[in-house]
Write a structure and sequence with these properties.
Blueprint: E1 5-10, H1 14-30, E2 39-45, H2 81-88, H3 101-118, E3 123-129, E4 132-136, E5 141-144, E6 148-151, E7 154-157, E8 180-181, E9 199-202, H4 206-217, E10 224-228, H5 247-252, H6 256-272, H7 277-284, H8 288-294, H9 297-306, H10 308-315, H11 320-332, E11 335-347, E12 353-359, E13 365-370, E14 372-375, H12 389-397, E15 416-418, E16 424-430, H13 436-439, H14 445-464
Parallel strand pairs: 1-2, 1-7, 2-3, 7-16, 8-14, 9-10, 9-14, 10-11
Antiparallel strand pairs: 4-5, 5-6, 11-12, 12-13, 15-16
Amino acid sequence: MQRTRKIVIIGGGLSSRLLLIHLLRAARENTGHGSESVLKITSIERHALDRMGDAFCTDVDYHLLNVPAGKMSAYDDNPGDLVEWLSLAGYDYNPYSFIPRRLYKNYIFYTLEKEMACGAGYVQVEFIRGEATDVSEERRGVVVDGRDTIQADMVILALGNFPPGNLRLEDNAYLNLPGYYRSAWESDFFRELDTDDPVLLLGTGLTMVDMVLTLHQRGHRGGIFVLSTHGYVPTSHMPPGVYHSFERELYEAEDVVGLFKVIRANIRKAKAMNIDWRAVIDSIRPFTQKVWLKLSIRERWRFLEHLRHIWGVARHRMPADNAALVEQLIQTGQVQVLAGRVSSIGATGQTGFQIMYKERGSRLERVIYSKVIVNCMGPELNWNRIKQPLVTNLLNKGVIDTDELRLGVNCMPDGAIIGKNGRVSEFLYTIGPTTKGILWESTAVPEIRHQALQLTNLVFRVVIHSLL
């Protein structure tokens, strides 16, 4: 008689859903239809069970994926699955289309439901809305809402992205003022605005783009200031191009300077062949993690200090239609892109804020007046600054530790958590953005679905194989 093994996944975002899809598929392929259940999966999510993370809480069609549909399948070995689903659902998209994120969320939930239906009878899946507050390897369980314990043979942290951190200023009273929003996704700040009110968006990345698009669609006429340290705005996607692999050249580079010399040389070669530079960057993607793992910690720090922001705008691009609209709003002057460091934020005599910042380059003190401030700076990465019971408890016990770059949690490339004592866990694993410091590329679907496949193979090898 077979004994049920129990897997607990903490988190209900995209990483969790992709892992569930792969676990269910693997269970179906490794177990006969007449078998008793050998796998029970419990998914714990503190938000609504149908939310799937901040990026997918939008229901508007102008919030698009920033990767074309042909690269967004839930399956590594079936790249056309999303495009096929879109066609069967009656949507007129092709592999090069940038589809609304709400449709992608529907696709993921459809795919999950399909895998659950195929595995009915020999795989049990349970979804719990609650907050996981602690994990005990000794008791082999997860504590939910501080009281109930769910038993597990393996626990996987699929926590996704955390809310942005706040600017740390000499006077942080602004954090408690009405009109300051820590996250663009957690509050409907539009309700506080008249159409002519000025708005400040802190950060110039893809979240800023989403907010600019939303303001435009809602008919906002006021000035939109977007401010970051460097003032870099994401570049636009272009029609797909192909550039040959130069993997060996990258592996032979000894440091970050060498890597970027190789990349620049290949961009020059591509230009001579009338191939856009974006094709060169895209050709690196399949082995970016291997190149990152080859770098020393010192070289990774150098990359973060000097090249991280340039890489970000080259690597994380926006759809051409969105880019054209943002550029139009910049040209008309409604959107003003600013570069510098905020020195102070205070309330004005009326409702609103006075923001002082030192301009990049000149170091001159500049001022912005804004009705609201929206934090679009990207997720907090340093786990020492994350105020969630689960993270705090695990850090305090030494069960987890931050990675050396403080970009996430310390773990092995396969997701096995490394505690503060240096021991590699055989019980606690992680997947998705939490592995950024170890793998660098770990936030987009192609990388997360590959992690999901690898972790699924590990689950079946370590936890379940002896039962089959």
